[in-house]
Amino acid sequence: METEAPKFAVVLSGCGVFDGSEIHEAVCTMLSIEQSGCSYQCFAPNTWQARTIDHYTGHAVAIAGDEDNRNVLAESARIARGQIKDLSEFKAKDFDAIVFPGGFGAALNLSDFGVKGADCDVNVEVKRAIEESHQEGIVIGAMCIAPVVIAKVLGKHRVHITVGNDSKVAAGVAKMGAVAETKSATDVCVDIDNKVVTTPCYMLATSIPQVYEGTRNLVDEMLELITGC
After folding, report:
1. What average pLDDT does the structure give for the chain?
2. How many CB atoms lie within 10 A of CB 4?
3. Is the pLDDT score of 1 beyond 70?
4. How high is the pLDDT of residue 53?
5. Which of 102, 167, 186, 189 is found 20 to 30 A from 211 (Cα to Cα)?
6. Does the global pTM surpass 0.90?
7. How many whole angstroms separate alpha carbon 2 and alpha carbon 4?
């Protein structure tokens, strides 16, 4: 009997490195999943961005509460070509894995780690998705700065992650109870006990090929945990 290919949930945090999902990381993740013969469904929390950045000037053009600030789900739909669901619809039992691309959106919209550090709060639906995934035993993946969100939610389980070689971020991770492992741009940290897989991507990467290699390595390691071989 033919086994159904693993299905991934991809959680986005907006569209653009400075206020949402890092687009290269998000696209390379989806590409790596499809090249592995698997399928994915994109999700994003239906909430407002902490800020909206003009990616040409690098300046904030709106902040939370402004009329022209942007919605995380609506912006994430740009990357997903409209094929996206509200994260409130996510059910871990329907998937084999869940993965979080990086970008400042992870530290501003999925959580407020970028503002509060280790004392951050995590969006209620993001927290639920991570906790439910951990309880169901599906594999959790994250890249770039997104692993800090996993650390905040699963720190009590002493989860091992990577955030590149950023000592300040690593200190925040430790304060949350998690362990930051130093890895190179394309290396992967695999926490077998918690079924968590992370990679630095643009915390260290300097090119799209490096990001692609990192995401492909991440997906390969996630599949090993899914299939057990």
Report:
1. 96
2. 9
3. no
4. 95
5. 167
6. yes
7. 7
Under 8 Å between Cβ of 79 and 14: no
Q: Which residues contact 16 (CB under 8 A, 6 or more apart)?
A: 23, 53, 55, 75, 103, 105
Angle ∠(56,57,58) on CA atoms, nearest 5: 95
| Gyration radius from the chain CA atoms | 16
* Candidate from 70-79, 91-100, 162-171 with smallest mean pLDDT: 162-171
Catalytic (active-site) positions: 144
Which residues, 6 or more positions from 229, have their beta carbon under 8 angstroms from its beta carbon? none
Question: What sign has the CA pseudo-torsion 170, 164, 211, 3?
Answer: negative
Task: State the pairing for strand pair 97-100/189-191.
Answer: unpaired
